[in-house]
């Protein structure tokens, strides 16, 4: 199904974006890798090309917070690929801090610019091409876009915004398939290392490494690809979280206590 399809992936230099690149390459897709750290993209391209020499791989240094950068990515990628079949908006930043502990509320604006406007900019320039191909626009959102999670206020807000944006576009653009991927924590990414953290002395400190029970980036990528193949509107990863979201509507305080307890286990006592 994905053989010879043309796919753009933002945030492709590491983590889930990198895992998606390998997975689609194995399926024979042509890939455009976009991220700010272009040196990592070159290394990734070299490795993928050695494994799968028949596919086309493009590299673009892209900052999704910058509108002109997103416009340039879409125009140049389509110019070289000829057609766009799938766009995957993966770039983003997490947060591990109480709201009261951040140094400046403008940091929340930066988070929104990356996680939300980064999707908006790319959607604006990608949708005309996807309309022509009847293609797919995939957003790597989060379970935190449907469930409030402590110490993630800015991240949660950005993902709620993304989910509402995509659900609305789905109604407006019947010729395009929209997929919202809603994963929980994923092992093998840099989200924790680069998260927005607090500046206060008593700020929370998160463990850098996940437990062995956390899903890997590779497994998460496979879940997303299956959902894309079946043209689902959304995919919860793991699937059980779709029931947590439903239960919270009826047992709000109980579910919120469970969420808080689980999040606290991720913190270091310092």
Describe the structure.
By secondary structure, the protein is an alpha/beta fold. It is built from eight helices and 13 strands. The protein has a seven-stranded parallel sheet with strand order 3-2-1-4-6-7-12, sandwiched between helices. A two-stranded parallel ribbon has the order 5-9. It has a two-stranded parallel sheet with strand order 8-11. Helix 1 (15-26) packs across helix 6 and helix 3 packs parallel to helix 4 (106-133). The longest helix is centred in the middle third of the chain and has 28 residues, at 106-133. The model has no long low-confidence stretch (mean pLDDT 92).
Topology, please?
Blueprint: E1 6-10, H1 15-26, E2 30-35, H2 38-51, E3 57-61, H3 67-81, E4 86-89, E5 95-96, H4 106-133, E6 136-140, H5 153-172, E7 177-183, E8 186-187, E9 196-197, E10 205-206, E11 215-216, H6 217-229, E12 234-237, H7 241-248, H8 252-264, E13 267-268
Parallel strand pairs: 1-2, 1-4, 2-3, 4-6, 5-9, 6-7, 7-12, 8-11
Antiparallel strand pairs: 10-13
Short characterization:
The N and C termini lie far apart (50 Å). The protein is globular and about 50 Å long. Helices cover 46% and strands 18% of the residues.
The CATH topology label is Rossmann fold
Q: How many separate domains?
A: 1
Shape: globular
CA radius of gyration: 18 Å
Q: What's the helical proportion of residues?
A: 40-55%
Task: State the order of secondary-structure elements, H for helix, E for strand.
Answer: EHEHEHEEHEHEEEEEHEHHE
Poorly predicted spans = none
Proportion in β-strands? 15-25%
Strand order of the largest sheet: 3-2-1-4-6-7-12
User: Tally of extended strands?
Assistant: 13
The largest β sheet comes out as: 7 strands, parallel
CATH architecture: 3-Layer(aba) Sandwich
């Amino acid at each position: 199904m994905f053989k010879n399809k043309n796919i753009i992936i933002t945030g492709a230099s590491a983590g889930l974006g990198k895992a998606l690149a390998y997975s689609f390459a194995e399926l024979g897709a042509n890939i455009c890798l976009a991220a700010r750290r272009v040196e990592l993209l070159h290394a990734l391209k070299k490795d993928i090309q050695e494994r799968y020499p028949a596919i086309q791989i493009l590299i673009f240094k892209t900052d999704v917070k910058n509108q002109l950068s997103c416009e340039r990515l879409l125009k140049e990628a389509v110019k070289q690929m000829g057609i766009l079949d799938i766009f995957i908006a993966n770039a983003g930043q997490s947060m591990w801090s109480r709201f009261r502990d951040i140094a400046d509320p403008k940091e929340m604006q930066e988070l929104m610019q990356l996680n939300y406007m980064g999707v908006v900019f790319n959607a604006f320039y990608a949708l005309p091409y996807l309309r022509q191909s009847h293609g797919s626009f995939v957003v790597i959102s989060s379970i935190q876009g449907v469930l409030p999670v402590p110490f993630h206020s800015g991240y949660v807000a950005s993902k709620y915004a993304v989910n509402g944006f995509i659900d609305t576009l789905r109604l407006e653009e019947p010729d395009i398939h929209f997929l919202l991927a809603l994963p929980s924590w994923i092992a093998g990414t840099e989200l924790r290392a680069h998260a927005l953290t607090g500046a206060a002395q008593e700020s929370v400190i998160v463990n850098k490494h996940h437990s062995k029970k956390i899903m890997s980036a590779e497994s998460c990528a496979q879940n997303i690809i299956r959902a894309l193949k079946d043209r689902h509107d959304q995919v919860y990863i793991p699937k059980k979280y779709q029931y947590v979201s439903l239960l919270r509507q009826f047992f709000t305080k109980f579910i919120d206590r469970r969420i808080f307890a689980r999040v606290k286990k991720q913190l270091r006592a310092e």
